[in-house]
Structure formats: structure tokens, C-alpha cells
Amino acid sequence: MRWSPERLDQLERAIRDGRRVAVMRRGTEYIVVALRVTVQGSREAFVGRLPMTGEELTFVLDDLEGFHVV
């Protein structure tokens, strides 16, 4: 998936507003509450919290197959 400036703006807005996002990684869809953008090694990533368990997951942006603000 390519990250255009518009897509990054959508992610940043979701983080600012505390919205849920649906992401697809390695064939699995995750619905998480977007928390923050971070850097993992030299790659951009974002952290999301699973609503049911409160567990935080880190998603490297280049590894995502799909992204949608819910």
C-alpha cells in the first residue's frame, strides 16, 4: 500500500480525534483505536489499542496492506 499525503493526514486526524481505524496486515484485519505515530528502527509506524483488551499493537506503515478510518 502506498502512503500518500492524504492517507497520512487521515491517519493523523484519526489519532487526534481518537477514532477507530481498520488495518489489514498479513491477511488479518485489525480494528484499533489510533493512538500515536512513532518510528520503529528507521521506519514509520503507528500504535493502536485493541478496544476489547486494551492491548497496544504497533503497525509499521510499509507492512500494511490496507487502511480505513471507521
3D architecture notes:
The protein has 70 residues and is α+β, with helices and mostly antiparallel strands. The protein has one domain (5-69): Roll (SH3 type barrels), CATH 2.30.30. Helix content is 19%, strand content 53%. The chain has 1 helix and 5 strands, in the order H-E-E-E-E-E. The mean pLDDT is 93.
Q: Which class of secondary structure composition applies to the elements?
A: alpha+beta
CATH topology: SH3 type barrels
User: Main sheet: which strands, in order across?
Assistant: 4-3-2-1-5
Tally the helices: what do you get? 1
Separation of the first and last Cα atoms: 18 Å
* Gyration radius from CA atoms, angstroms: 11 Å
Major pleated sheet: 5 strands, antiparallel
What spatial form do the alpha-carbon principal axes imply?
A: globular
**Residue ranges: pLDDT <50 for 5 or more in a row?**
none
Helical residue percent band: 10-25%
Q: What share of residues are in beta strands?
A: over 45%
Corresponding CATH architecture: Roll
- Mean pLDDT across every amino acid position: 93
How many runs of DSSP E, i.e. beta strands?
5
When the domains are counted, the total is 1
Q: What is the CATH C-level name?
A: Mainly Beta
- What is the H/E string? HEEEEE
